[in-house]
Amino acid sequence: MITVRKLKLTIINDDETKRNEQYKFIRDSQYAQYQGLNLAMSVLTNAYLSANRDIKSDLFKETQKNLKNSSSIFNDIPFGKGIDSKSSITQKVKQDFSIAIKNGLAGGERNITNYKRTFPLMTRGRDLKFSYKDDCSDEIIIKWVNKIVFKVVIGRKDKNYLELMHTLNKVINGEYKVGQSSIYFDKSNKLILNLTLYIPEKKDDDAINGRTLGVDLGIKYPAYVCLNDDTFIRQHIGESLELSKQREQFRNRRKRLQQQLKNVKGGKGREKKLAALDKVAVCERNFVKTYNHTISKRIIDFAKKNKCEFINLEQLTKDGFDNIILSNWSYYELQNMIKYKADREGIKVRYVNPAYTSQKCSKCGYIDKENRPTQEKFKCIKCGFELNADHNAAINISRLEE
Description:
By secondary structure, this protein is α+β, with helices and mostly antiparallel strands. Helices cover 41% and strands 18% of the residues. Strands 1, 2, 3, 4, 5, 6, 7 and 8 form an eight-stranded antiparallel beta sheet that branches. Strands 11-10-9-12-13 form a five-stranded mixed beta sheet. It has a two-stranded antiparallel sheet with strand order 14-15. Helix 5 runs antiparallel to helix 6. The chain is globular. 26% of the residues are buried.
């Protein structure tokens, strides 16, 4: 399994002048990469257009073949010492061009990729050497190219502190392999490492064959989970009321700031209000992400505790959400979090069609919209079976197959 973690970095160097030079080295290398990416993409694009958009033509194939580290187009670009930028550029450009073709470049549905100056600086995984600063310290450093040494900045008050330290310890011990990663400066001018990790998948030999956890996305509860083979084992996870209250607070803050913006024509006052709006958006995004991390962790913990082989998730489109709480909640992000956390534990995730799961009786199988007289109550009009509506839906989801 591949996962990416964001790490805050700072350069360690007692000599301030040299430290500033090293920061400049990263910026200059990032700019050189930006030049190389766009130049390489223009070479492929020109060949593609000259060949009448025929990627099977000899002209395009030859151009693509000759786009390599030794290409003369890179001769005048001052790439960073020790960074394998040429190789990263040629691989990235070829990959992005191939994706553009598949996504409709020939039909005009997709434009040629244009790389921005802020595009993260790609670096080989083997060039990132993780270690503890010394035997008695939990401070983690990274030795990089050109004798640059980074310190990983991790706040102990960070909710993910222990998880991140656990992950980095596995990197240092060699349990997790570091893949091609990237470095960039964020909007606050902080140095960030997008660390790509290859994590070996676990095989849960203790899982009960066929046992499946059904996950129903609800209105009262963000998630309601239940086992397929023992429907008395179930649990609701989270409260939609707390989610909606928090989102309402963010909406009110945005409205106030937007109203204030109408009364400010320009200048620093308007800039401050716009910055405040951006901050609210970031805070809301962080809240939703943290909330999804909490929900997904509890779902995985429940599945592990009950030795599940599978987790069934609803395959829903955004249009499938008919209430304001769920339509504004990043359910796709939650699904991704459940998926990668389940992969780590060797639990298989399946996406199932949720059609009629809220109307179907989990006891006799009868389907009718009248089976759900209220949002919370389910009562089958055929057999009289009664159950919490979310519980009933979770049972049905758990029994579905891909």
